[in-house]
Amino acid sequence: QWQIVESGGGLVQPGGSVRLSCTASGFPFSEYTLTWYRQAPDQEREWVAWMGATSGSPSYRDSVKGRFTISRDNAKSTVYLQMNNLKPEDTAVYYCTCAGLKTYSGKGIQVTVSS
Questions:
Q1: What is the DSSP letter of 28?
Q2: Distance between CA atoms of 26 and 91, rounded to whole angstroms?
Q3: Are β-strands 103-105 and 33-39 bridged in parallel, bridged antiparallel, or unpaired?
Q4: Which one, of 89, 87, 95, 94, lies nearest residue 111 by Cα?
């Protein structure tokens, strides 16, 4: 049975950093593309960062370019989102999605940027 567990969220001050982790099991993680999404209160879910299953450069939405970095460790079936220089508008629930033959998503983790 598949499982996705996200961790690393919480309360962080503006300008601070946090690293989200998403660990998967139950499917061939290395064959899947990985996407981080987020959803702020009363707003639609939006994609944040994407990484392919094989080669190619990651992609980021414009508002996080230069601040966020997505990476993967296939040996650990884990994808990370390093978030630096956080802003209050980054406050949201962050979701990890793995897409391949099927699509698997986590339950989300809250990140709150506030002083």
A1: -
A2: 30
A3: unpaired
A4: 94
Q: Could you report the per-residue pLDDT of 10-67, keeping only the tens digit for each?
A: 999 999 999 999 999 999 999 999 999 999 999 999 999 999 998 678 999 999 999 9
Q: Give 48's contacts (C-beta < 8 A, 6+ positions apart).
A: 35, 36, 37, 38, 60, 61, 64, 68, 81, 94
Q: 106: closest CA among 98, 114, 83?
A: 98
Answer left, alpha or beta for residue 108, where phi above 0 means left and psi between -120 and 50 means alpha: left
